[in-house]
Specification:
Shape: globular
Strand order of the largest sheet: 6-5-11-7-9
Strand content: 35-45%
Radius of gyration: 24 Å
Number of helices: 3
Amino acid sequence: MTTTIISSSTTIHTTSLPLPLTPTHHFPTTLRPFPHPTHHHLHLRHTTTCSYKISIQHEGQTTQLEVDPDETILEKALESGMSVPHDCKLGVCMTCPAKLLAGSVDQSEGMLSDDVIERGYSLLCVSYPKSDCEIKIIPEEELLSLQLATADD
């Protein structure tokens, strides 16, 4: 026991307990910084350790991927060796367009208009899975024509 006298009327008694040498708790969640295209500071994305099954149709083949909610579908596709069109990886250039056939993604970092997103289109570079998904990679021109048409509305 340690005794600390703060003043003549106040005395604090403390007892030191031995601390474990190794951590005893493991938490399944992490915070990962990511850049936001409209801000110059970092935000934190809360993530968990579960992953989602993503089915990608591209060039006549279907590829199955396991994608964590804190990684983009494009990141995982490139990591797996898929030859997927892409360029800026910021959700601006529209080089990695896809049609979301089933499931849902968070693409709030991208620049697609809301009505184009509501039609099921996404940019893989800013698409974070929120569920199992089925995706078809589409020609860039298909998405550009839709995005430009809605910009005039």
